[in-house]
C-alpha cells in the first residue's frame, strides 16, 4: 500500500492537500465504482483528523467523484473513459467557440497578462509545489483567453465543465506539461497575429490531446489491475 501520510510542510495547506490526495487516488483508479471511502481509515493514512477528510469529501461530491449516502458514507463514483470523452468533447466545442469569439475583444492588458502567465508557467519545474502553481496559472490563462467572448451562457457551461478533473489534470499528467507549454505559446502567438480561427484550432488540439492522454492513463491502470 502506498504511503499517503502527509508531512508537516503539507499541513500548511491541509485542506487543499487532503482534497488533492483523495482526488488523485480516485482519478488514478485505486477505487472501483461503489467502493466506500471510509473517513477513519483515510484520516489515519494521511495523519489528519476526520474534519479535513469530511470537508474534502464534500468537495469531491460537488465534483462528482463521490456520492454521500445516509448510513453508508462516501461511495466512490470514479471518472470513466466515457466521462472523459463527454467532458473533453464538450470542452472542445465550447472553448473553441469561446476563444474564437473572445479574441476580437481582448485588450492589450489581457494579452500582456497571457504572456506573463505563459512565462511563469515555463519557469516552473516538475516538483509537487510547482505543479500546483502550474494548475493555478493554467486555469487563469484559459479564463483570460475566453473572457472576451460576449456569449454569457457559454461561460457558465465552460465553468461547470472545468469543475473537477480539468482543473487538476496537470497533477495527473505532469509528464505532459511540456506539450502544454508549446500549445500555450502558439495560442499567444495567434492572439498577437489576430488569427481567431487558428486560435480555435490550437485550443481544440490542446483539449483533445489532454483527453487522449487521460484515456491512456485510465487504460494503463486497468491493464495493471488485470
TrEMBL record:
Q: Which PANTHER family does this UniProt record tie to the protein? A: GLUCONATE OPERON TRANSCRIPTIONAL REPRESSOR, TRANSCRIPTIONAL REGULATOR, GNTR FAMILY
Start and end residues of each HTH gntR-type domain? 12-79
Signal sequence, start to end: none
Cite the PROSITE patterns for this sequence: HTH_GNTR (PS50949)
Q: Does the keyword Transmembrane apply?
A: no
Cite the entry's keywords alphabetically: DNA-binding, Transcription, Transcription regulation
This chain belongs to which protein, by name?
GntR family transcriptional regulator
Return any one Pfam family short name: FCD
